[in-house]
Amino acid sequence: MARERLTMQRWESLTHWPLIIASLLWLLAYSWKVIADSQGTEEIVLWTVIIATYAVFAVDYVVRLSLARPRGPWFRGHLLDLAIVVIPMLRALRLLRVLTVVTFGKQSAGTVLRSRIAIYGAGASLLVIYLCALAVLDAERRSPDANIVTFGDAMWWAFVTVATVGYGDYYPVTALGRIWAVGLMAGGIAIVGTVTATVSSYVIEKAAHGRDDDEAATRGQVRGLMQQVAELKQLIADGEKKP
How far apart, in whole angstroms, are the C-alpha atoms of residue 180 and residue 172? Predict the structure, then answer.
């Protein structure tokens, strides 16, 4: 029996859940390492898991790049996948792929799209806040001038930062911590914009519901109606010709 040829679709089907599991393992290992401030053997084990997940994502990217045809457009269109390999924090975003299996029943395409955007937005918001809190805590806790020294402090700082409140009671003092803060602020603006756009779209649809008679017909609708009228006239003419 001939061996089935490996294609991009087959590879992605085979690696979908393994990559999600690898993302979860990375998130658990990194969370444990930072929150527990692991040392010694425990830290070595956690670093082993983190490096192993890095290898899994690197192999996945190399295989998909080798299977891509043509490779240039695929590379330019999948820069996020490269960033996931290079930037460890982005690996947890793979967990959002689980949301692709969510079904919404018999709904319009627009409603399904908004539902998915809302779910992705909520999931991305929580992940970004949690990961940035971990990253800032990891960068700050050993600085003598740090005021973010516990996981609770870090989560509070992340929430007030992403909400653009910025009380100023907690703030990063290290260069790396401030880099993560800039990333969180940029992510917070993007998340707020996405949520606002989704809510606005929902409100507009609800306001227009039941007012279809007030809307102007599109050219496509007019052409379709004219074609149906012409077909109906032809049927009537053919019927009249028959004895």
Answer: 9
